[in-house]
What does this fold into?
Amino acid sequence: MTGPDTRHTHLAALRQRIEACTECSLCHTRARVVPGAGNATARVFFIGEAPGRKEDESGLPFVGAAGRVLDELLAGVGLTRSEVFITSILKCRPPDNRDPLPEEVAACLPYLAAQVELIRPRLIATLGRHALAIFRTGVTIGEIHGQPFRDNDYTILPLYHPAAAIYNRRLRPVLADDFAKIPDFL
Ligand code: URA
It folds into this structure.
């Protein structure tokens, strides 16, 4: 079993590798790399889509409007950022916040896989359709949000992206209901 200190050290080394990455063309347009943040022994691991403008400026995940929604949803189930790990599929911002390109996802996925393997969370919560598509295709988020499923060693909980609740206020209570399932896994 890997101890918390070892995990922390490996995660810090991985972070340095991610920050130096030049595997895709987003390295030319990014201001900062956004590797992710949180606890090396987190039981729940959140995966978003890609950094936006505020994240690109700060190097931190979910610090814009969607991040505020995420913080409120976490607080609603008694969690803080220091207890969880939060990252996105892409670690660099796509210009104008366009959707991630398949080659960008392919270049970045090994970092996500390495983060998951180091942290070994009890639950992976995907935020939005892009993160869901890593684990399952052929279904929409509308069909399976809030319904956990297994993928190899992990339990995946598909959730709407917090940004969706900004554009569509009716999704906010849906997200809160789905978040309410998280403590069952901790
Ligand atoms: N949206 C994401 O998917 N990730 C971030 O880090 C910020 C907004």
Observations:
- The longest strand covers residues 154-159.
- The radius of gyration is 15 Å.
- The chain has a mean pLDDT of 96.
- DSSP finds nine helices and six strands in the chain.
